Amino acid sequence: MNPIAPHITAFLQERLPLDCAASPNTCESYAYTFQLLFQFASERFNVTPSELKLEQLDSKLVIDFLAHIESQRKNTATTRNIRLSAIKSFMRFVEHRVPSALEQSRRIRAIPTKSADKRLVNYLSMIEMEAILNAPNLETRAGIRDRAMLHLCFAGGLRVSELTGLLLTSVRLNPTPAISLIGKGRKERCLPLWKETAADVRAWLAVRGTPPAPELFVNARGESMTRAGFAYLLDKYVEEAAHTCPLLQGKRVSPHVLRHTCAMMIYQATGDLRKVSLWLGHAQIQTSDVYLRADPMEKIEAIEKMIPPSLKKGHFTVSDKLIASLRAKNVRCATDS
Hints:
A hairpin with a 5-residue loop joins strand 1 (171-172) and strand 2 (178-182). A three-stranded antiparallel beta sheet has the order 1-2-3, with no helix packed on it. The longest helix has 22 residues, at 24-45. The protein has helices spanning 5-19, 24-45, 59-71, 77-97, 102-109, 126-133, 141-156, 160-164, 195-208, 227-241, 255-270, 273-280, 289-294, 296-305, 321-336, and strands spanning 171-172, 178-182, 188-192. It has two domains: 5-109; 126-299, Orthogonal Bundle (hpI Integrase, Chain A). With 337 residues, it is mainly alpha-helical. Helix 3 (59-71) runs antiparallel to helix 4 (77-97) and helix 4 (77-97) packs antiparallel against helix 5 (102-109).
């Protein structure tokens, strides 16, 4: 029997970050998946997680685990599929380390994903976005920083990890304002900035000072801004903006909604999904199809270009005497008024 601990350690500490160049967020997500799986397995076999054996991780256990997180933890089909993908990736890794586990791995990798609802992306109108950007107090250092963060996240279509991890050295304001990013899959991309966005970044750099953190955005203690910190600030400014923009009242705006808003703005301006994909740093252009489905103008233009069928018009004759008398009274009342 092979202990599972050394294999999962090598997978999380070597395979993902070094060989696959996975982002810290991906590594954290995978680690949490196995935390849940090993807790479930330890209760099933009445052993501690460190005592689990590789042979105990079979297809039946994985299927039962997936059912458990859906029924007990109320996970959606999308989350269930993400957990399954992490487990399959680990089993592909194990095949090369433990050849005897090949059949066991094939059975797990044969577990199908579950169909999930494909919801339309949530994005903001330009009126709503302007209200949020105007919410910070630009007479304070924190307000200048927050305006620059919100503006850059929206205008660049940045993932929150890209925003908080953006290095000071990755910002170029002359001659053409631009930022350099390392996104998912360690893909690097360079994004030009609107002059308005560049102005907000310049204003922040003028008051940022020289804290030891290498990131562009820092908190009040001079440490790098966290994902949770930015999400908190966004919630605060959405609530403030709702006082002047009622459309925002009761609307949940996550950092990723700003990214979707940027994508929709680019698509509506260019009509080119390839440009959206390049701007957002998508690995495949198909990922950008969600913005095609979400844009109502695409459907309106299609309707306007279509020629509707010519249909004969009908005339309904009232046969019931009571309905006919009521209709006659309505006509007389309308005439008298």
